[in-house]
Amino acid sequence: MFENADALLLARFQFAFTVSFHFIFPAFSIGLASYLAVLEGLWLKTGKPLYLDLFKYWLKIFAITFAMGVVSGIVMSYQFGTNWAVFSDRAGPVIGPLMAYEVLTAFFLEAGFLGVMLFGMEKVGKKLHFAATCMVALGTAVSAFWILSVNSWMQTPVGHEFGANGQFLPGPSWWTIVFNPSFPYRLVHTVIAAYLTTAMVVGAVGAWHLLRDRSNAHARKMFSMAMWMAALVAPVQIFAGDMHGLNTLEHQPVKVMAMEGHFQSHPDGAPLILFGIPDSQANVIHYAIEIPKASSLILKHSLDAPLAGLDTVPEDLHPSVGIVFWSFRIMVGIGLGMLGLGLWSLLARWRGKLYDWPWLHRAALVMGPSGFVAVIAGWVTTEVGRQPWTVYGLLRTADSVSPLDAPAVGLSLLAFVVVYFTVFGVGTWYILRLMNAAPHSHEEGLEHEPAPVRTAGITPAAGQLTADDREGA
Fold this sequence. Notes:
By secondary structure, the chain is mainly alpha-helical. The protein has a domain at 184-391. Helices cover 67% and strands 6% of the residues. A two-stranded antiparallel sheet has the order 1-2. Strands 3-4 form a two-stranded antiparallel ribbon. The chain crosses the membrane at residues 15-36, 57-78, 98-121, 128-148, 187-211, 223-240, 323-347, 359-380, 409-432. It comes from Croceibacterium selenioxidans.
């Protein structure tokens, strides 16, 4: 069935499929780890059991999310060697050490403290457990740091040299590679997106339980915290996104042309095309709804500033305009929706109706998965907009693929689709089941066995059983 297929297209689709699945879980776990640290810190500071209940409630969800993120991430490393062997050989001296740094820092940090965080609350002191939670949260952020550094170097490659065999070799300063021109903007934009993704999920769960019972104190607290995050951080994200867009215009102008739908150059000010149907064959946006000169105002801060279009770029260097155009608008539209939800919650809070407006709660419930859609749309905009390059301007995607036949790539793609939808579908179903249960007082955490776990079948002698052991038996 794959004999007449394009091996390159299948390899790209396979990578896109697995990355999209993987990206969903870190986008949630990065924000959720920090939320757990905040909840435990508030519990230690105030002594209120409500914060501990919420911590234990979300800890169970975090454990499953984190596990699925790790498992789905392992596949990515193998794909570099199987489907993208030429890219791995050419760019390995640069991206290999950066990914190793992630393992040596983030993975070791998370592995060292995750067990204490998940199972150690009754076994270590409160302050030590809080420190472990903070270390796990830090580890997720450090992981994002290194992965985004790798991807950003592929977007804006600097600090390297070329070997005799065409390999990218590190230059005299690794910091030039790590802190490449697009990295700071992409790091801030992505981490804030993870926090907003988590806020939307927490807000949706809180809204779900408020619609059932407005008097639920735990649902009230989580909904209030999530809405504060939406109201305060969504404007910051919009500003960060604008700065990131200006940086992209400087270093990857063709991507911005596709995002804006500018097939033609505009010497006297470019319009902001809100909606339309891109036609890459005719190089035009059909049925365009636009605001005159607004794109020049946003990108150049001048109504009459000229903006170049795709007519200045050879056609073989054009990305897929239709995909980039619409994925960008989905991301921006959801961001504005988050801002609107945050402002609505501020109005409700000001009027003392935050827990009494069902339509606000329904809106928050609908917005629950919006963060995941936004981060995937943003990733599609970034990666498809970079095409036809793997390392922007230096290594084409067509020259990066392994010499594989289409059936080999297609069969592995089918296997990934079946396994991913089965395994992660079950995991997602179980997470939703946990969310469906309302948080309550004296919430049970991940450990509630009366006796300690004993390995290798070793148990104390009958005369050494403690009272708790005998009760559990």
